[in-house]
Amino acid sequence: MNTSTHTETRRLASVLLTGQRPxxxxxxxxxxxxxxxxxxxMLPAIAAKVIATYTEPGDLVIDPMCGIGTTLxxxxxxxxxxxxxxxxxxxxxxAAGNLRHARTQGATGTGQVVHGDARNIATxxxxxxxTAALVLTSPPYGATTHGQVCTGRDNGGGKIDKSxxxxxxxxxxxxxxxxAELVAGFGQxxxxxxxxxxxxxxxxxxxxxxxxxxxLVDLPGxxxxxxxxxxxxLADRFAALLCGLRDGQIVTRASFFQMIESRRLREHGIxxxxxxxxxxxxxxxxxxxxxxxxx
Length: 295
Prior knowledge:
Layout: H1 3-9, E1 15-16, H2 23-27, H3 44-54, E2 60-63, H4 70-77, E3 81-86, H5 89-104, E4 111-115, H6 121-124, E5 132-137, E6 148-150, E7 161-163, H7 179-196, E8 197-207, E9 210-212, E10 215-217, H8 219-229, E11 232-241, E12 244-246, E13 249-251, H9 256-267, E14 277-285
Parallel strand pairs: 1-11, 2-3, 2-5, 3-4, 5-8
Antiparallel strand pairs: 6-7, 8-14, 9-10, 11-14, 12-13
Helix pairs in contact: 3-4, 4-5, 7-8
């Protein structure tokens, strides 16, 4: 199967309806319950749509920062083979558990999880050089996220409790580094992943802006820049909805803290809205683009 031909015949729409169901319902029964403790999981519907569009059964899908294994689970359910790499041991164990759970549900693809630093992925997975049809991943959004919240409505009027909002306590984790270092490290990971792609293979990155001390960081733009600096070319860009659409209206899936933060910023005269989509960025190795820049 030639991936370039495949993408021509099965292109994605510019806006993907991936948030019609809340994340917890997309995962319910399909993932182990402890998976919800990860602070920033990829939406299963996004992973499933990308895998269905850019691969065929039997193809290899790789996620260098696999977390609890969303990419892996959605790949094996579609009959793809998959390999994930994860820096945090407890998340790697969750990913492996989710793969085993997928097998009990009839998933026909095979999967493995490697515990390690994805900045070394080309060496760690050297036996897979030149074999992957798709790399699908997402970078971290700083050391903490909104996580999960228990409000006064939930706990009988007590204080607001926040939990499961940290990627790691290990300072070596890219999530702990300043944004410039995080992006540079992600560039290293993209370079390593490019070596794993077969001819015509695709690297897909889901990413959205985030705020540091109230200031909006254009992480999608920075990912595009660092990818191009590391020999990749942006081949396409889509909006994957994190919200639902019902009767022509947006149904927000934004977290409690995201809504509060947006409101506070607006009260201080700073334009701010709750995040309603992720950018889905598609890259190919520069030399593999056709003349004229098409697929």
